[in-house]
Amino acid sequence: MLYVITGPPGAGKSSWIRAHAGPGDIVIDLDLIALALAGPGADHHAHSDALLKVAHRARTAALHQAEQLVDQADVYLIHTMPQAKARARYRRLGARIVVVDPGEDVVRQRVRDMRQPGMERVVTRWYQEHRRGGSRPVTPQSSRDW
Q: What range defines the domain where residue 66 resides?
């Protein structure tokens, strides 16, 4: 089964996966890919444009390969804000879409406390898209105790 985990930055998408994925499952998380490709001491969420370009290519390759293995292992993909084309592709693949959203106030506080300032714009964009119906169905939930 392919699980596509969406939600704004700081919502708890990675925490949701840690709570649900097993040791034999495949997890495709752009932040973890970038961290694996970065030099020692790299920030977990702040990545250079060059690093992100390589990480995005690696993520795309990993997803293409993982799509062939969904009958052998569960695949968990973090995709913060999938656009219509990606959502249609995930539907064709029979993916289960999970939206992790503990609420805008909680997310904004987490981003202020734990992320770089530019992430606030991504939060705003995510909620604007969500309100237009871009990330349905919504299953608000708290990901963990913060």
A: 2-131
